Amino acid sequence: MFLFIVAGESILINETRFKPLEELQKLIRVRAHLKKINKPSVKTIESPDGDLIDCVVSHLQPAFDHPKLRGQRPLEPPSLRPKGHISSDETIERLQLWAETNEFCPNGTIPIRRTTEKDILRANSLKRFGKKIRGVRHYSKNDGHEHAVAFVNGNRYYGAKATMNVWTPVVTEPYEFSLSQLWVISGSFGNDLNTIEAGWQVSPELYGDSYPRFFTYWTTDAYKTTGCYNLLCSGFVQTNNKIAIGAAISPRSSYRGKQFDIDVMIWKDPKHGHWWLQFGSKALIGYWPSFLFNHLQKHASMIQFGGEIVNSRPKGHHTNTQMGSGHFAHEGYGKAAYFRNLQVVDWENSLIPLANLHLLADHPNCYGIKAGKSNVWGNYIYYGGPGRNARCR
Fold first, then answer.
1. Which of the ends of the chain has fewer CB neighbours closer than 10 A, N or C?
2. Which candidate in 146, 176, 197, 205 is catalytic?
3. Is the model's pLDDT at 319 over the cut of 70?
4. Is the pTM of this model over 0.70?
5. Complete DSSP assignment for 242-288
6. C-alpha distances out from residue 121 to 27, 30, 46, 114, Å
7. Which of 146, 176, 205, 308 is catalytic?
8. Facing residues of 161 across strands?
9. What range(s) does the Neprosin PEP catalytic domain occupy (predicted)?
């Protein structure tokens, strides 16, 4: 055994498992990264699931490490939200698990889920920590990502909104995930793809458990070097002191039981051009500054709604990782996962129904999708599936 002192902390290294110098260098890099993303807090709240939620002064959050934001403070929320918001008595405001403590961060601070050494060490590498390898449907490349999505394209879009129910799908392999989200997309599916994404996901690698968690993502180069999940890099500016991005959602839907929804809306503020995020019917979470993007500085060219999983095929066949509820779309309400009240934001900053909705399930025997329209739900989809089964191998 070897004992090293790094930044005033002792590190005990087992020489039978690692070369001492290599492990020391790795831990130094990990701790330096933790120091960069875990900002000093004025208060810490312990969630029932074990998460530590740090209350960080708003202008000291990771976003302001960006060269174009240094020395600035978060903007005030836009005065005009998209017109035509569809309200429904069925929409139930959801609390995150950490909020069950009845504690919130003080005004002037934001809640940030604390990243731990274990979180980073679960990743394939420090370079890939907090990043997707790829995360939008590409029409010719198969790298293990599978989708069941509805999409619109061929127009100019300035945002999107949907209500989705939340489940706890089984994820069978440590480097797989299952998510349900909306995508705001522009650019080509090559090196210059711009996306803004938000929804819920189960990712044992990223979070170390199987809870569905509210998440965000962005990229400007097709997931190669830019962007990240949540607040794990500079970019997204959070303004809300009651919602923690990356925190567990509670309660969740159950098969043949009660269904629990979340609302997600992303839209471009006509005045300043930034892309704002709303969670629930009223809570503004924050914004992606327009300068982060090239194509999305103007508008989006595609909007997607639906599910995505990673199938790593560790034993040469499809895994049992579920999408949505783990049940196929044709099973319907109370059994399958859904998105309802699908809308886009037009150039007049109005929420409007979808036109020319397209459906795509790239592995329909594993995960399916179907669409409909009603007076109550507007445009809606059911989607998902169990993964490996007699027809999905």
1. N
2. 197
3. yes
4. yes
5. S--TTPBEES---TTS---EEEEEEEE-TTT--EEEEETTTEEEEEE
6. 9, 8, 22, 15
7. 308
8. 265, 343
9. 139-393
Q: How many residues does the chain have?
A: 393
Asked about 197 being catalytic, the answer comes back as yes
DSSP-assigned letter for residue 293: -
**The pair of three-digit structure tokens given for residue 90, joined into one six-digit string:** 């069925």
Q: Read off the pLDDT band of 85 (50, 70, 90).
A: low
Cis peptide before 78 (omega within 30 of 0): no
Using DSSP, state whether 206 is helix, strand or coil.
Answer: helix
And the tokens for 15?
A: 């020489």
**Cα 24 to Cα 8, 85, 200, 246, 252, distances in angstroms:** 14, 54, 35, 29, 41
Residue matched to tokens 């039978």:
16
Active site residue 15: no
- The secondary structure of residue 74, as a DSSP letter, is P
Amino acid at 199: G
Distance between CA atoms of residues 24 and 11, nearest Å: 8
Q: Which two tokens stand for residue 226?
A: 């830019």
**262, 277 contact by CB (below 8 A):** no
The pLDDT of residue 310 is above 90: yes
pLDDT digits (tens, 9 = 90+) for 95-143: 799 988 889 999 999 999 999 999 999 998 898 899 987 656 554 455 7
At which residue do the structure tokens 């997309």 appear? Answer: 185
Note the Cα 165 to chain centre separation in Å.
15
Separation of CA 75 from chain center? 22
Decide if pLDDT at 88 tops 90: no
For residues 264 and 161, is the Cβ–Cβ distance under 8 A?
Answer: yes
pLDDT at residue 8 tops 70: no
